[in-house]
Design brief:
mainly alpha; 3 domains; two-stranded antiparallel ribbon; 9 helices
Length: about 260
C-alpha cells in the first residue's frame, strides 16, 4: 500500500472514473449556502482569468465558456451554475456590491457572528470537568487539555469528525477541537504549570499575606491570649509543592483557615 505522501500516477480514464464516483457520492441535493458561495467564487475567479487572457490575447476567443468550465471543475450541473450566477447578477443590479452583505450564511465564522461554542459551557459540563481535574490531580495523574478533550468526548460533550478514509479522527478537526478545549479551560479559570512553577494568583497572594500577618500578630500576644494555631499542608503555602509541570489546576485555591482555642 503506498504511503500517504507517495504520488500515484493516474491515467485519464481513472481520473474520469474518480470524478464520476465523487459526483455520485455528493448526490443531487440542493446546494447549501456555503456551496453556493463556493460556486460563485470559482465562477468569478474563472471569469477574472478569462478577462485577463482576453486582454493578453488582444480579444481573441478563449478556450471554453466560463460557466461550462466552472460546472466541470466543481462537478455540478451547468444549469445550477447559470442559475446561481443569475441570482448574483440580479442582486448586484438591485443593490450593488453592498448587496452581498445581505446574504445569510449558516455556520459562518468571524467577529460579526455569535455562534455556540464547540465545548458547552453549561454548569453541568463545568462541574464535570472540575471534578475530573481534581480527581486526576489527587491521584497524581497528568491532566492537560488533551486528557480533558478525551474526557469530554467520552461523555459526548464534544465530537470529532472521522477522517475521510474512515481510519481514525480527522487530524484538522481534532486539532480544532483541542484548541476549543484550551479556550474553554482558559475561560473557566484553569492554569498550567511551567517547569514546576504555577502562575501567580493575586487572590492567593492576598490570602497568604493575610495569613502570615495574622499568624505573626497571634505570636506577639501573651501565651494565655494566643489563639490555637492550625498548621496547613505544605501545598497550601508553597505554590510549587507537589505540582506536575504541565498539569491543569484551578485558579480558585482553598482559603487559609484559623480556629479559636
Amino acid at each position: 500500500m503506498p504511503k500517504p505522501v507517495t504520488k500515484k500516477h493516474l491515467t485519464p480514464q481513472e481520473i474520469m472514473e474518480i470524478c464520476a464516483c465523487l459526483r455520485n457520492m455528493r448526490g443531487q441535493g440542493t446546494l447549501t449556502e456555503k456551496e453556493t458561495l463556493l460556486v460563485l467564487h470559482v465562477y468569478m475567479q474563472l471569469k477574472l482569468a478569462h478577462l485577463e487572457n482576453r486582454r493578453k490575447s488582444k480579444g481573441k476567443r478563449s478556450n471554453g465558456q466560463v460557466d461550462e468550465r466552472a460546472a466541470k471543475q466543481l462537478g455540478v450541473g451547468l444549469s445550477t451554475v447559470r442559475r446561481k450566477y443569475a441570482m448574483l447578477n440580479k442582486l448586484l443590479q438591485e443593490h450593488g456590491i453592498d448587496g452581498l452583505k445581505t446574504l445569510s450564511v449558516e455556520n459562518r465564522r468571524g467577529k460579526a457572528t455569535q455562534l455556540p461554542t464547540r465545548v458547552p459551557t453549561t454548569k453541568r459540563v463545568l462541574r464535570q470537568v472540575r471534578d475530573h481535574v481534581r480527581m486526576q490531580r489527587e491521584g497524581g495523574h497528568r491532566i492537560t487539555a488533551v486528557q480533558v478533550l478525551d474526557f469530554l468526548r467520552k461523555h459526548r460533550h464534544v465530537d470529532v469528525r472521522p477522517s475521510f478514509a474512515g481510519d481514525g479522527d480527522d487530524e484538522l478537526d481534532r486539532a480544532a477541537a483541542l484548541r476549543a478545549v484550551q479556550r474553554f479551560l482558559r475561560r473557566a479559570g484553569y492554569l498550567r504549570g511551567n517547569k514546576h512553577v504555577v502562575q501567580e494568583n493575586p487572590r492567593h497572594k492576598q490570602l497568604l499575606a493575610k495569613y502570615l500577618k495574622e499568624f505573626d500578630a497571634n505570636r506577639r500576644l501573651p501565651p494565655d491570649e494566643r489563639l490555637r494555631e492550625v498548621y496547613l499542608d505544605e501545598s497550601y503555602i508553597d505554590r510549587n509543592y507537589n505540582r506536575n509541570r504541565d498539569s491543569l489546576h484551578e485558579l480558585d485555591l482553598r482559603p487559609w483557615q484559623r480556629t479559636a482555642a
